[in-house]
Amino acid sequence: MSNLEGRFDSHEKWLKHEGGERLVLLEHDLEGVSIRDRNLSQCQIQRCNLKNATIRNVNLSRSLLTDCDFTRVNFSHTNLHSCDLSGSILKDNILRETIGNKKEVKSFQLDLYSVAYTWDRIQFRCQNYSLDEWEGLSDDFLNNIDVEAPEWRVKWKELLVRILEFSPAKSTEGI
């Protein structure tokens, strides 16, 4: 990991025009890696295994993240704006306060909560559910999460269902 940290440092210098070089990772096995509090905007990560990784509070905007396996990755507080995730597997991801790329990961805010979703998961607050689970949650269950959650869902559920119907995230199933 220390070599990887050095490459992250070099990329951050490159972004600031202080020398360094752009981060390019091709065909690396990074399963379970923890990447936190980094600006990796405009990096290139291709054909890498990142299963079970934690990519938290990382700016990956305008990055090329193609043909990677992001199964069960924690993307909390991560910026994926304008990322190219073509050919990548996104499944069972944690998306708390994640900014999506408008294709495979979508995000928006409604009153109290930010919402992010992929083809198979929806996240609001610290709660993450399959799309079917989310629709079936009881008010009692939501009340245990946050006293305002049932009221929020009543207010926004119809719109959320329509958003998910009319603007679904691009599926990565079967890739």
Would you give an account of this structure?
The protein is of the alpha/beta class and 175 residues long. It has a single domain, classed as Pectate Lyase C-like, CATH 2.160.20. Helix content is 25%, strand content 21%. The chain is built from 4 helices and 8 strands. A 4-stranded antiparallel β-sheet has the order 5-6-7-8. A hairpin with a 3-residue loop joins strand 6 (113-117) and strand 7. The longest helix has 18 residues, at 149-166. It is elongated, with a radius of gyration of 17 Å. It starts with a helix and ends in a 9-residue tail after the last helix. The mean pLDDT is 91.
Layout of secondary structure:
Elements: H1 2-15, E1 24-26, E2 34-39, E3 44-46, E4 54-59, E5 106-110, E6 113-117, E7 121-124, E8 127-130, H2 131-135, H3 139-145, H4 149-166
Assign the CATH architecture. 3 Solenoid
Order of helices and strands: HEEEEEEEEHHH
Beta-strand residue fraction: 15-25%
- For the record, the CATH class is Mainly Beta
Structural class: alpha/beta
- CATH topology title: Pectate Lyase C-like
Low-confidence stretches: none
Envelope shape: elongated
Binned, the helix content reads: 25-40%
Instruction: Give me the number of helical elements.
Output: 4
Keywords:
21% strand; 25% helix; 175 residues; two-stranded parallel sheet; elongated; single chain; Pectate Lyase C-like
